[in-house]
Specification:
Blueprint (H helix, E strand, L loop, with lengths): L6 E2 H4 L5 E9 L5 E3 L1 E2 L13 E5 L2 E10 L6 E5 L11 E6 L1 H20 L4 E5 L4 E7 L7 H13 L4 E7 H6 L17 E7 L7 E4 L14 E8 L4 E8 L1
Helix pairs in contact: 2-3
Length: about 240
Amino acid sequence: MADAVTDPLFVEDAYARSCAAKVVGVSDTGAIQLDRTVFYAAGGGQPGDIGELRWDGGACRIGATVKGEAPGAILHIPAEGETPPPEGVDVEATLTWEMRFKHMRMHTALHLLSVVLPLPVTGGQIGAEKGRLDFDMPEAPEDKAALEARLNALIAEDHPVSFEWITDAEMEANPGLVKTMAVKPPMGQGRVRLVRIGAGETPVDLQPCGGTHVSSTAEIGSVAIGKVEKKGKQNRRVNLLFA
């Protein structure tokens, strides 16, 4: 398997659904590394993308996308029974857009959930139909309906969602940007990506994140706050669903 870095096109353009790429390595287990990809590799609570690779004379369904052992490598895992393309071949990589777009909507919605519940985040998970955040929160919220109304109001305000980069040094000097207690922003590459919700000097939200997001909050659509579960003395899990 090649140690080459995979160019993660989704970092700059989350709406890119396909790309031309070259197979730079295939492992003994069939994991495929491309020189570039639109497929998000699982991480930060967001699932990896699924989809298909097509090349002259063949096709392979991708059942998972994960990070490789080498820094910057992304591996495309064939679905069961699929045969990977040969190393060196040119392919067209196309992700399953419906699922990816739901992940984008839910991921942005969870950022907004951390705004209406401004507490330290101890964990989280993004799904195509529902997501959740775990909070350092001794008691459950008293008025779940009011939280849901505020969250949907933020979504309906159609705030722009953008990203920017800061240096590792700037990240270390601004620890308050980090909301997650369990997952620290990836550092060591010289820069960290921030996701900004809202315009102007005082954004609705600003935090480090390498995941994919919609470009405006209105794309999320209406959401509903589901069960609030007790997950320890200090932890509460807040589930979020598309309404």
